[in-house]
Design brief:
Length: 391
RNA sequence: CGGGGUAUAGUGAAACGGCUAUCACGAGUCCUUUGGGAGGAUUUAUUCUGAGUUCGAAUCUCAGUACCCCGACCA
């Protein structure tokens, strides 16, 4: 992609109506645009990141037997009256239509599976826009009124089968956060079931200062607890804890018969498992940034490399990279070197390639990784090989 | 939903109750520029909305709305 043609632009100054790091950087770098509190457009760069996260999530869901569907956002009142949740204030209601906007999908998936499932267990998921009338949208894309979510629902004929699958999902989630670069910062924490379940549930919490949860991590066994159920003593017997701010990037629940019963699905127990796709994106930015911009982990970055032609054009190298299947953003704009370099840092693509008269004299390009300071000269004829080893 | 704050061009800022609302950046057009945000020419506004005070309001008052932060809430 040529940067001169890309539908986006960078902004030098922080928007005055955003305080969170993720919103400031994503807006300045041209990934997202704010329409209202907790309502954002995703521009091409932002959408590329989302697609990458979705791809990771899909692959891991499919590996554990998940089948993808797409359910509607418009939900008839009747479905929600069956479970007694029509009154939930978080749900946006459309006056005079007896419709509400979906904030979760138990009321839709359960009758759907009842109708179409010919055998159990079944694992059905979707990646879809959720609407929630948040009493306080905040922190950029971390807590939105409209956001992308992956929700998986499992249906089993026994508790044991549910328990087994629950553990599989746990593993799949860890793989997802690992591939998104968040492994080191993400902890499984025990939480109460909240609105969805009377039993214990688990949350995946990513440690970040802008998080809105407090978790307590046991210094002895690493087990973590959400503040809401924390009782100062770990299952391992330890009373030594560390308190940290975190953001909930996913959660898993055993629902039991809570939703299958009202829809007359006899002897079926359910589980539900969510990941906030856009929230994960925000969490990544919160974790990976420095004072000049974003530092995208490899697998979620919008491009593999950012090619800059400074005082010379780099068309040949650009074409060559593309021919070899490397996702490249090529800054071909008629801008000063300083501006290109600053934008490059801000956008945060993992590898920077510079071609200039200076490097051209040596038949080289200059390589710099976004997360390192080191500069490296690489011969142009060896560039493709070099980059392929980096991916 | 309680508390606090803010609202002027696409973005960030300035303007004592008083002259044609100013500046920088961005965006558009033209020329020169290219290793850390370059220069010139030219274009770019219903001062959030509504009412009030006043000879006169971006500026003061009231109401509304939007946004930010703290808390409550939150799969």
């Amino acid at each position: 992609m040529k940067q001169s043609e890309l539908f986006t632009k960078t902004i030098k100054e922080n928007p005055k109506d955003e305080k969170s790091i993720n919103a400031q950087l994503l807006i300045r770098a041209g990934f997202i645009d704010k329409l209202g509190a907790g309502i954002y457009s995703y521009l091409p760069l932002g959408l590329m990141v989302i697609e990458n996260i979705k791809k990771i999530v899909r692959e891991e869901m499919n590996k554990i037997g998940g089948q993808e569907i797409l359910m509607p956002s418009l939900h008839p009142k009747e479905n929600w009256e069956i479970t007694g949740r029509w009154g939930v204030e978080e749900m946006y209601k459309i006056k005079d239509e007896n419709l509400g906007l979906g904030w979760t999908h138990e009321e839709i998936i359960t009758p759907l599976v009842k109708k179409y499932a010919t055998a159990f267990p079944k694992y059905i998921y979707q990646i879809q826009t959720k609407f929630r009338n948040e009493p306080r949208a905040k922190s950029g894309i971390l807590r939105c009124r409209e956001f992308l979510m992956k929700d998986l629902y499992s249906f089993h004929t026994s508790e044991d089968d549910l328990n087994d699958y629950y553990e599989k999902v746990k593993e799949a989630y860890f793989k997802i956060y690992d591939r998104c670069g968040l492994k080191e910062k993400t902890f499984l924490t025990v939480a109460s079931g909240g609105e969805f379940s009377s039993s214990i549930s688990h949350e995946f919490q990513t440690i970040t200062e802008s998080g809105e949860d407090d978790i307590y991590t046991c210094k002895n066994c690493g087990c973590s607890f959400n503040k809401e159920i924390f009782d100062s003593k770990c299952d391992c017997g330890s009373t030594e804890f560390e308190e940290k701010k975190s953001i909930e990037v996913g959660n898993i629940f055993k629902l039991g018969e809570k939703y299958s019963k009202p829809f007359n699905m006899d002897n079926i127990v359910m589980g539900c498992y969510g990941i906030g796709i856009t929230r994960v994106m925000g969490a990544i930015v919160e974790v990976f940034n420095d004072d000049v911009g974003i530092i995208w982990p490899k697998e979620v970055a919008p491009f593999n490399v950012h090619l800059l032609g400074l005082d010379t054009d780099a068309n040949e190298i650009y074409n060559d990279l593309q021919k070899n299947g490397i996702k490249v953003l090529y800054d071909d704009r008629n801008k000063s070197a300083g501006e290109k370099l600053n934008d490059c840092d801000l956008i945060g693509i993992p590898i920077r390639i510079i071609l200039s008269k200076k490097t051209l004299e040596k038949n080289c390009v200059e390589i710099k990784r976004r997360n390192e300071d080191k500069l490296e000269l690489v011969e142009i004829k060896k560039l493709i090989e070099f980059i392929k080893n980096e991916l």
